[in-house]
Specification:
The chain is built from 16 helices and 16 strands. It is an alpha/beta fold and 414 residues long. The structure holds N-(iminomethyl)-L-glutamic acid and fe (iii) ion.
């Protein structure tokens, strides 16, 4: 479906994918259910796909063009599965206001917050949105990110939401990166429809979804279920339309309070529920039963100085897949680093570095509904990173330090 098209577009975009590569003298963190480290490993890549992985001594294929990685560590490419990279303007002023004591909700109710980014996003042309997003995307690429999810949600009219998604698609043609898009019109009520949430859902969020889908602009449908945004019932109406069109769903839920959005979304088959600081411990069972990924966003937790922690232990106890993302956005998480998100998830949420790496590789792909990507495994997409480190825990351990040696996207150095 549309997500597979995203992969295929990327696969055929870069000319010389027919050649084989063999990377050897390296350590592999394959991320097949954990680090699953292979010492003295070798990876063979054919046509952008991993064709062999294992111990170098067991490889019987052609060794004539081996690339020696000098003992370095190889992981799958990093995946940022929840971002709002495309937006106009900035919210540094609100940062100052929050430091003086105003809360995120107070700022939002006073016409700041998401609605203030909406003004700037509407004023920006498509080209201006692309130009503003590129440095943020480049920051992710520089630290080995190979797949990025980008949401709409700051346009809040059908045309402006579509403009954001067109900008996201354009970014994919300007850089060697896979971009997956989400329709997030149900993010906030624009000031012209203040108090008329239902009208906004009926006049913008649902018809816009159909239009954007027909224009091949959406890979998933998202929403913001919260007191300052939309009710469970309103989001469910948007999701029912998405399901009719066979588009995967996901939700910003239980970030500031518990309205029950995560359970509703999960029971409708959501790929992921994101934030979930206020999720009830017992609801982990529902996420597990429905195979919904829990996406933790430590950048927003940190920025809003949240005290309530997501129920990590109960997620673990129920074997819920946990992913981590930057939530890069102008307000609640002006964070454009997956490595720092990993460090924060460990320090703030007490994830292990192994859980953190799984959360930005295989589990992040799962949160996006992508298959055959996010592990070092035969027949998986050859998106991988070579790091100048000895142990994968080093990726989470350092703060503000990038040890990337080489980034390989679809089998090509990029
Ligand atoms: O994921 N929670 C809702 N949406 C964003 C915040 C966007 C903003 O403040 O601009 C988030 O945190
Ligand atoms: Fe978000």
């Amino acid at each position: 479906m549309s997500i597979h098209n995203t992969i295929l577009r990327a696969k055929f975009k870069w000319g010389s994918l027919l050649k084989k590569r063999v990377l050897a003298n390296c350590q592999l963190a394959t991320m097949e259910a954990g680090y699953n480290i292979i010492q003295e490993g070798l990876i063979e890549i054919s046509e952008g796909i991993i064709s062999w992985v294992g111990r170098e001594k067991d490889f019987t294929g052609d060794r004539s063009n081996i690339e020696d990685l000098g003992g370095r560590l190889v992981t799958p490419g990093l995946v940022d599965c929840h971002t709002h990279l495309v937006f106009g303007g900035d919210r540094a002023k609100e940062f100052e206001m929050r430091l003086e004591g105003a809360s995120y909700e107070e700022i939002s109710k006073a016409g700041g917050g998401i609605v203030s980014t909406t003004r700037a996003t509407r004023e920006a042309s498509l080209t201006e949105l692309v130009e503003a997003a590129l440095p943020r995307l480049d920051a992710l690429i520089a630290e080995g990110v190979t797949t990025v999810e980008i949401k709409s949600g700051y346009g809040l009219t059908i045309d402006d939401e579509i403009k954001m998604l067109r900008a996201a698609r354009q970014l994919a043609s300007l850089r060697k990166v896979r971009i997956v898009t989400s329709w997030l019109a149900a993010h906030a009520v624009p000031s012209e429809l203040k108090g008329k949430e239902d009208d906004y859902i009926d006049q913008v969020a649902i018809p816009g979804l159909i239009k954007a889908f027909n224009d091949n602009l959406i890979d998933a449908v998202d929403g913001f279920c919260e007191g300052i945004a939309f009710s469970v019932e309103q989001i469910e109406r948007v999701f029912r339309q998405a399901i009719k069109l066979n588009i995967p769903i996901k939700l910003h839920a239980e970030q500031l309070s518990n309205l029950g959005g995560a359970v509703m979304a999960s029971n409708l088959g959501a790929l992921s529920v994101d934030h979930i600081e206020y999720l009830d411990e017992k609801d982990s069972e529902i996420l597990a039963k429905n195979d919904t990924v829990a996406v933790l966003l430590p950048g927003a937790f940190y920025t809003l100085r949240e005290n309530k922690h997501p129920p990590v232990q109960s997620l673990r106890d129920h074997s819920v897949n946990i992913a981590i993302a930057s939530d890069g956005n102008p307000g609640s998480s002006p964070l454009f680093s997956v490595l720092l998100s990993m460090n924060m998830a460990c320090t703030l949420f007490r994830l292990t570095p192994e859980e953190a790496l799984l959360g930005v590789t295989y589990n992040a792909c799962k949160a996006l509904g992508l298959e055959n990507i996010g592990m070092l495994k035969s027949n998986f997409v050859a998106d991988l990173n070579v790091w100048d480190i000895k142990h994968p825990a080093e990726l989470s351990y350092r703060i503000g330090f990038n040890s990337l040696f080489k980034r390989i996207y679809g089998g090509e150095n990029a």
